[in-house]
């Protein structure tokens, strides 16, 4: 017999994720309506559990991907106000706007 570990997801956790997904969807609509082509998210790492939840929501459901290192290098060259230490310990994700993913 094979045992599997199961995580306990409470109703509050599901509600929180649903609210976050709805807010993110609205944000994408507003940004796209403003004529933007891409959104970049700076994510502060919290815990392994929060990282896994974030990855599921942003990467799988909303189509975010890790920002290319070439883009980071270009930003550092173009933007004198870019603070390397500000985003040094953070994860940067990007997503083109206008290309909604299927669920």
What does this structure look like?
There is one protein chain. The chain has 103 residues and is of the alpha+beta class. 50% of the residues lie in helices and 16% in strands. It has one domain. Strands 1-3-2 form a 3-stranded antiparallel β-sheet. The radius of gyration is 17 Å and the shape is globular. It is built from 4 helices and 3 strands, in the order H-E-H-E-H-H-E.
Q: Could you give the topology of this structure?
A:
Layout: H1 11-33, E1 38-44, H2 48-61, E2 65-66, H3 69-78, H4 84-87, E3 90-96
Antiparallel strand pairs: 1-3, 2-3
Estimate the helix proportion, in percent.
Answer: 40-55%
**Amount of beta strand:** 15-25%
For the largest beta-sheet, the strand count, sense and barrel status come to: 3 strands, antiparallel
Order of helices and strands: HEHEHHE
First-to-last CA distance:
34 Å
Strand order of the largest sheet: 1-3-2
What is the structural class?
A: alpha+beta
Query: What are the segments in which pLDDT stays under 50 over at least 5 consecutive residues?
Result: 1-6
Rg calc: 17 Å
The helix count comes to 4
Total domain units: 1
Shape: globular
Mean of residue pLDDT values: 74
Number-wise, the strands total 3
Protein name: N-acetyltransferase domain-containing protein
């Amino acid at each position: 017999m094979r045992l599997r570990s199961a995580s306990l997801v409470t109703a509050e956790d599901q509600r929180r994720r649903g609210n976050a997904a709805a807010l993110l969807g609205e944000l994408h609509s507003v940004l796209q309506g403003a004529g933007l082509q891409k959104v970049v998210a700076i994510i502060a790492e919290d815990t392994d559990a929060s990282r896994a939840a974030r990855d599921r929501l942003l990467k799988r459901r909303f189509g975010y991907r890790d920002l290319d290192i070439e883009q980071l290098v270009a930003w550092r060259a173009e933007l004198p106000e870019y603070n390397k230490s500000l985003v040094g310990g953070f994860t940067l994700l990007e997503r083109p706007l206008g290309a909604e993913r299927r669920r």
